[in-house]
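Field log, afternoon session.

UNIT: design team B
ACTIVITY: writing a sequence onto a fixed backbone
BACKBONE:
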């Protein structure tokens, strides 16, 4: 028996990076996984790598109606939803002065609006079953620290941190068997992080170019985050609710 045997899990942004690692780890421990992404080739590859009956559904996470369709397809295929991992994201390497309105709105559409839609409609589906259910929102250490070149990204991750707590208490007060937590990775070895590091090196600012990179002793592995996601998806974490869990090797607390 796996640690989440039979639980139905939906992972957004599963075409690569953290989402792929999450989907594979959940499937390894018995989860029935639905992977979504705009990257069809990547999402289908993740489903194959995950195995255990995992399926891929193309999804644009900024589309509210699309969220409802994806959740309906999930319920039609697997009968329910137990775990939602709101992982989809992008990064724009710009300061408060250089970020355009279009970039600001695009970042928030993908990483703030999508988490709202996922929780709003995911809760509605989850509350219909009698299982222990879990929503896991992927935030960032950027929600705690000042990252000048990642202005819109940091703002959206701060919103995810706050929304998580409000949703957690709402579910608790409503008597739903749904926990809501946020995970805050530091620098993790994914294509998105390496791209941000490369772009940050050319971002004009008075500080040294290396400061564009997330601080901390080296990059973590996607599996480090996936293991935290697995813990929160499992009933082992049944008394963890509204929490913010750092996966950063001490980044936030460094003097």
């Amino acid at each position: 028996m796996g640690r989440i045997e039979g639980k139905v899990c939906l992972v957004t942004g599963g075409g690569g990076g953290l989402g792929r690692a999450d989907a594979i780890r959940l499937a390894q421990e018995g989860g029935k996984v639905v992977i979504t992404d705009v990257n069809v080739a990547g999402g289908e590859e993740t489903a194959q790598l995950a195995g255990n009956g995992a399926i891929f559904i193309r999804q644009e996470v900024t589309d509210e109606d699309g969220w409802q369709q994806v959740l309906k397809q999930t319920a039609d295929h697997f009968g329910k939803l137990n775990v939602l991992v709101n992982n989809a994201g992008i990064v724009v390497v710009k300061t408060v002065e250089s970020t355009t309105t279009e970039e600001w709105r695009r970042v928030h559409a993908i990483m703030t609006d999508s988490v709202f839609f996922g929780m709003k409609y995911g809760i509605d589906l989850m509350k219909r079953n009698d299982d222990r259910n879990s929503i896991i929102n992927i935030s960032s250490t950027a929600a705690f620290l000042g990252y000048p070149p990642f202005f819109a990204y940091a703002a959206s991750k701060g919103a995810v941190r706050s929304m998580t707590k409000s949703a957690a208490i709402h579910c608790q007060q409503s008597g739903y068997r749904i926990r809501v937590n946020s995970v805050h990775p530091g620098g993790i070895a994914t294509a998105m992080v390496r791209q941000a590091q490369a772009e940050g090196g050319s971002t004009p600012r008075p500080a040294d170019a290396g400061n564009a990179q997330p601080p901390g002793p080296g990059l973590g592995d996607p599996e480090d985050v996936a293991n935290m996601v697995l813990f929160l998806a499992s009933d082992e974490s049944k008394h963890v609710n509204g929490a913010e869990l750092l996966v950063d090797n001490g980044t936030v607390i460094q003097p």
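LOG NOTE: The chain has one domain: 8-247.
NEXT ACTIVITY: expression trials, pending approval
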